[in-house]
Amino acid sequence: MTRFVSLARLRSKAAGLISKPALRQITPGASPDISFCASPPLAEDALSIDPDKVFSPDAALIESYTRFDPADHANIEHQTAEKLLYRGIPYSRYLDEWQFHPGRIGSYLVTQRMAEVVRLARALQDFFVELPNGGLALYYPNTIQTARLQSNEYIYSGIAQGQLLAGYTRLILRDRERAPLWRDLAARIAESMRFPFEDGGVCLDGQVILEAPNFRSCPEIILNGWTDALIHLHDYLQVAPDKDIEAFYLRNLDALAALLTTFDDPGAQLSRYSNLCPYVFCAQYERPQRASAAPRVIVEYLPAKPGYRAYRIEELWKLEARKPCLYDNRIEAVRSSSVDLRLSVSSLHDLRFHIAAPCSRVSFDPGTYDNTSTVPKKTMTSRSVAPIARSDDGFTTFHINAAAQGLLAGCPTNFMKHGKENFYHPYHIVALYELALSTPLPPQRKALAEMASLWLGYMESDAHKRLGDRIVFASLEGFVRKMNRFRAIPSVQSFKELRERATS
Prior knowledge:
By secondary structure, the protein is of the alpha+beta class. The protein has helices at 7-17, 59-66, 102-111, 114-123, 158-174, 179-192, 223-239, 243-259, 402-405, 424-438, 442-458, 462-465, 476-485, 495-503; strands spanning 35-37, 47-48, 76-77, 83-86, 89-94, 97-99, 129-130, 136-137, 203-204, 208-209, 264-265, 270-271, 276-285, 297-303, 311-313, 330-334, 338-346, 349-355, 359-364, 383-385, 389-391, 396-400, 421-422, 472-473.
């Protein structure tokens, strides 16, 4: 287990762990030193990011529940403005369309009458996908118009699997007659959280649950998705103890406590939504190239903290003939003088890429944020980095570190829901206090509660008070009630009680 120290030392330690690449900021008139080698310097034992090698569900199964016929009134039940049942399966209005939404289906299992829940739980057995590790996952259709779900590969989600697990945990408790069936299904849903990212799953290095994996990018950790899944995993373990799953749960809490400082943005006085942002890097050629020919690009993500693996994209994909997703890594544009690369910037991994062409520099807009941006917003300024290496076989190597280059490794939770409501910052506070209550290990509890308390203090900062009623934080009490509503085993009844118990 990780040994924990005070929050201040954690932040200092985290800063010291970030690798210090030989970054060279370009200065006019300067000739930066470049190392020369026979071939591009590649990390050993890097895991492959390759969508062609990950597990993929049967597309026909996903398509079978993606749409339904609104005119098929004989098979539609209990329709409201926001929800209906079609052939016994809940569909929700999401971004003004009817959607098969695994997370909301999980919520239905926790909130509805048991007779309806039993009927749905049995029907869902036909829609779960069996993973290579024996886990069961409910995959998202590709019709949901949110950026992370517009990936070219079908994905399942750690947060949705957690909510489904809550539903089946409730069934174990309430439907004793069929409890063995529900126990088996719940165990296999929990197992889906351990299926590795590099194989098509949601588990990063055996210690992080991912909400929205993208198999054409560095893995992104979305904080509320991770914490929400852990809360439901904790409740499941109270009902169905499992030594392997418990060890997995405690490894996640270790990782969460150790990485929390990377989700803290003192400048914005907010938590961060995730640890990753997409950027476009423009590589300038030393001499003109054929405009139609894209060079080969090898992309590496090198761990900035111990205990995590390196990742490699052997050949970066081109945009042509593919559905564009904002978070996909790809060659964005090719010109005779330059090539644009859409790549991920993460607090957990440094970015290193090798271009099969002689390049003089890479330029990029460092980005900023406001209350409407969920990805870096252009500042209309440019920064440049010189290469760190050239190889005999024609590759030019660049190394990017988010902190050193002033890039956003995850946007703060500044973006608004319902026009002016900060939703995710209070969400993070309540979730961390809940997890602090769940751990049997005092060092974990201390680290989680201290960060929650720091973020609680941010809500009272002058930076937010100056905005007056133009921005409000979602209710902490409301989040406690909401979390209880969607849990198999409700916790405390008020935020005051939660905070007092978590910090005592």
